[in-house]
Amino acid sequence: LECFKEDGPKGYDYSNQFDTLMWLDHDKKSCDSKWINENLYPVGYKDTDTITNVLDFGCGPGSLTIKLAEHLPNAKVYGVDIDRNSIEKAKENKAKANIPNVEFILLEHDHLEESWTKKFDWITMVDVFHDLPNPNLSITDIKRVLKDDGIVSAVDPCVHSDHKKNQGNQSAAMLYVFSTFICLPCSMSSEPAAANGIGWGVQNRAEFIKSNGLKILGDQHNGLVQFQKA
């Protein structure tokens, strides 16, 4: 009970858990082109030669963003995050990798740049959606900067929104514990404090996407969901 004091903070963001971010980012260093095509890229919906601008929303220390830039050498890839330490580390990683077509930007005031309206062919959100304290604000901004024919690829843990249907799922059990101390506090770290976390589940995520005037492409109940403007 000492972890959950009544007079404690409502939540905390990743600025207070940079070591956790680095740990989460470690696996993304191995995400080569094969992994991107099989687990993230909107294969069948978007040809690589039509992509000129990519946004990695919630890029963290930037390992996946750099891999996306390597995968799409003719595109400009932007990584944005609200965490200053993550962006500083991402810039260090860019310098080490010597990748010219990637740029990292600190997302201030929770808004993407006004000049980016209808700029991006492809937007990625990897392990971000369920952490957002204000997903309505984020999805509105993402819709604004997405081209009319652009696609968003969002990845979240594949957990059912009806918790009873996760019975016997050892992965879900582990993820719930992780979410209690990492994702849920992040989603409660500022107003309006959506408090989603991993328990939000892919069904609730799908309904949220559709309720914001977006169209889901293909299976809506996987960890990966692809969507575009309706």
From TrEMBL:
Give the matching InterPro entries: Methyltranfer_dom, SAM-binding_MTase, SAM-dependent_MTases_sf
Residue intervals of the Methyltransferase domain: 52-166
Please report the name of this protein according to its UniProt entry: Methyltransferase domain-containing protein
Q: Which organism is it from?
A: Mytilus galloprovincialis
